[in-house]
Design the sequence.
């Protein structure tokens, strides 16, 4: 079952097909071996607990697939593996202390041997080549060999050497999947633009009383929505394949299982992440540190305030913007949606051509009926928010800061947390 179900089987067959398309022969499946050593996983930082008013997020697009492509990782491109004696001595000691695999690798952003090479140390390191030979050199000597111009070699943070003079099967497959996903998403965006244009046309017709002309447009919009949904599913499948390939390489039931490649992906990803967040901290504080003052960790779906829109009439919530427009401008309804517009109100937006803020008119503002129960939360100053039970707010309960849904709040004992100016 492990060989026939799930994404591993899909990845296996996709790689085999890619090999056959290049008139090559796929390797035989290796015998499953029990007790495979655990490997380093993704890096997860400990969050800085507390309230933070201004939070930004930086993301690396398709990190693991990008790492595989950048280092040309594929079974046939592996040249050798540096012996991880120093690293595994520490990891195995931690494992014997009953630490989980993730904890054992927690502070590693690359194996010790990799860092010795990067730092050009004089410690001896042994390289085990794929042909069975072994070569010992100082870390500095290895650095000079690997990082010489046109060496045709790259080194992963796991201490694995890959050749780069010819594109690997797996990087080539990922490149094709990535390009196919980009094309599918472009097609979806084009259809969305067509749909938006038709919706605008429909709104204008409805606003001017031409309701008899809406039916053909409605049918066309429905067809566009089907096309968008179809392409969204296709690009999502490509995304799953892109992001699950590295996991298949770490699955012992995969034909192309190789612990060196899987850990090369995760540790190199950790290394990239460390340098990225260190650079972000340096931009804000001047200190190159991945645990610096500017680095936070947050992942939540909570809502702690209404969305505020800046207009030429002052700041407004979405609800107040709708009310202001409906009082002074035309309003109309389509199905369960209510639309309104007032051309004298403009909203503050960004002009990429001038790199400046600018007030501009907007097409419309609308609201729709919600079948879910809504909750109104009012603080002691009379400020209020309305939200469904899908969202949450921050409260203080028994001296602890926690996240709570509206239905979970006790107004008699809980303290609502707000952010003042």
Sequence:
């Amino acid at each position: 079952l492990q060989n026939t179900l799930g994404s591993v089987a899909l990845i296996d067959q996709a790689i085999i097909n890619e090999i056959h398309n290049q008139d090559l022969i796929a390797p035989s499946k290796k015998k499953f071996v029990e007790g495979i050593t655990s490997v380093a996983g993704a890096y997860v930082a400990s969050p800085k607990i507390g309230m933070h008013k201004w939070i930004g997020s930086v993301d690396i697009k398709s990190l693991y697939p990008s790492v595989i492509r950048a280092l040309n990782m594929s079974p046939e491109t592996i040249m050798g593996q540096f012996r991880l004696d120093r690293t595994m001595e520490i990891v195995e000691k931690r494992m014997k202390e009953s630490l989980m695999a993730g904890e054992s690798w927690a502070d590693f952003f690359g194996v010790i041997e990799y860092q010795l090479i990067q730092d050009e140390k004089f410690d001896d390191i042994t390289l085990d080549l794929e042909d069975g030979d072994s070569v010992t050199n100082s870390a500095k000597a290895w650095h000079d060999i690997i990082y010489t111009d046109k060496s045709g070699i790259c080194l992963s943070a796991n201490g694995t050497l890959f050749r780069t003079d010819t594109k690997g099967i797996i990087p080539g497959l990922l490149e094709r999947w990535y390009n196919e996903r980009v094309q599918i998403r472009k097609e979806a965006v084009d259809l969305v633009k067509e749909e938006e244009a038709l919706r605008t046309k429909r709104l204008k017709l409805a606003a001017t009383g031409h309701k008899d002309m809406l039916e053909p447009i409605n049918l066309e919009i429905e067809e566009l929505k089907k096309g968008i949904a179809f392409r969204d599913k296709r690009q999502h499948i490509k995304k799953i394949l892109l992001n699950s390939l590295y996991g298949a390489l770490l699955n012992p039931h995969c034909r192309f299982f190789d612990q060196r490649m899987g850990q090369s992906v995760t540790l190199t990803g950790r290394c990239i992440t460390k340098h990225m967040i260190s650079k972000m901290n340096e931009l804000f504080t001047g200190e190159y540190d991945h645990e610096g003052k500017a680095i936070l960790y947050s992942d939540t779906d909570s809502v702690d305030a209404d969305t505020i829109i800046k207009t030429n009439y002052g700041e407004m919530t979405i609800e107040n913007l709708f009310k202001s427009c409906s009082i002074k401008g035309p309003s109309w309804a389509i199905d369960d949606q209510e639309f309104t517009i007032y051309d004298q109100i403009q909203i503050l937006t960004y002009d990429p051509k001038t790199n400046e803020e600018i007030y501009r008119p907007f097409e419309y503002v609308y609201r729709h009926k919600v079948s879910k129960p809504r909750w109104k939360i009012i603080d002691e100053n009379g400020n209020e928010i309305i939200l469904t039970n899908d969202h949450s707010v921050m409260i203080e309960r028994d001296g602890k800061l926690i996240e709570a849904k509206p239905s979970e709040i006790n107004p008699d004992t809980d303290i609502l947390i707000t952010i003042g100016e």
